[in-house]
Prior knowledge:
disordered N terminus; 15 helices
Amino acid sequence: MQTKFKTKNENKITALYCRLSREDGDEGESNSIGNQKKMLALKAKELGLGNIEYYVDDGYTGTNFNRPDYNRLKADIMEGRIGTVLVKDLSRLGRDYVGMGYCIEELFPTYGVRFIAMTDGVDSNEGMNDIIPFKNIMNEMYAKDISKKVRSAHKIRGQLGIPLGQPPYGYIKDPENKNRWIVDQEASKIVKRIFRMFLEGKGAETIAHALSEDHILYPTEYWRTKGINRGGKKVYTDPYRWNDSTIAKMLTRQEYCGDVVNFKTWSLDFKHKERIDNPKENWKIFKDVHEPIIDREDFEKVQEFLSRGKRRPSKVKGNTPTVFNGYLYCPDCGRKLWFHTNTSNPSIHFFSCSNYEKDYRGTCKTRHYIREEALEMIVLNELRYLASFLKKDEAAFAKMMMEQAEASIAERQQELQKELETDLGRKRTVEMLYEKCFEDNATGKVTDDWFIHMTTKYSAEKEVLCRRIHDIQEEQRSLVISEASQESFISSVRKFMKIDKLTPTLMNELIDRIEVYEAEGKGKNRTQRVVIFYRFIGDFLILGRDNYCLTVDPQREKTVHYTVDAVSEMAS
């Protein structure tokens, strides 16, 4: 083979390549990075090779060549800087048969690089023997066998509730038991702060900015200062710079409730290390294993808000926030209402359907316009009515909530059970048809093409049915009104009694969503229905309420009167 460089490499670098990964852990000290360096340095001295430089990939698998220092070595080879490459044995360079063939048979000869594998007796200056490909195959088979053992042990550990991953920010491994997590008192304060800020209505970007402004170390940098070796970017221009994506991920970590969540990701095989998200129904969750940092109830609130998209106060002129952003919905099309400021009079703030056909090129026929001041009066009046009802007779209030909640839940359970029975019946039918396709194909009743077409169709339908059945069963399990939920709602109403104003925290604790109907009539006859759906306690209709008139002064000549039919309901 014609080479680009001469084989005389006196002035070139002698590259001593070392690699170690978890798959080599059971081979003892012989494969440690320190031991490899010593052996290679002695060999280089023995052979009279100078200009030594180390290339080290510590903690990287040999089943692929996606390694930082190997890539640096390859780049230096292609630039003509490397004269000799020394490794302890062939497996140190790699355990991938195809990749090893490329290095030994193409890369090194093309660029005139001498290759030495000490313990395998390989030296390209003495010629490459025929046993090398077989050794490379054996090295790959070894990696495959180790991978099977590791996967099997990994699965057993996961099924027993032992955490499979590293503890998230806020936890550390127990020094006395590496399979147990304990709270990191310093970092856990930041975790609590993040959840608290989100429940107050702040978004991930705002939270990240606040932490950066307060010079809170980013998790990876925090671990580095504590001497904890974790993955991630090691060098930061700003160690205090938090990302909104990091905040968003932390807000979804169920482990903060004290749970162990295993099998969230998986990989294809021992050669492909990329982690693939596992469907949630395949997760294995063990509750209350370690000390929680976040109350489960607060965590579930956060998940509910995240599932509905961003819900944080919008800023208007003068830095005045609106607490209603993300709570308002159009009952006709189901889309959210957008917040606006009147261009001719910036003191007027209002909401309207984001799907309105005229201004926003949507499909909703009506605008569902409502002034912010009017909406605030409506919600405040309703909450004051709840508070007065609770103060007057708390036992009656709780009893009414429970009775109506249970009735609403029972109705929903019946609906879900009908859907579940229909889907389970269809799933059994699909499975039967799938089996029949095999029989018909085996007996020659249908062609192979038709068999593939139909089985693909049935497989896809079965997958959809399984997901739907899982979702229904999850909702059935969640439809439970507990004393804790009831007390949480009552506690939030009591809190409103003391504050008597709307705050992001109270909105999060009390209100699920608000539906704003299109106004009817004009002037003093103008009426508009607003339906408030409360959290926790199912459908709750306050009977015996009279319509009331709200007067809003928009700082213009005429005063607008809203007669509001405020029907209050509570959502499960």
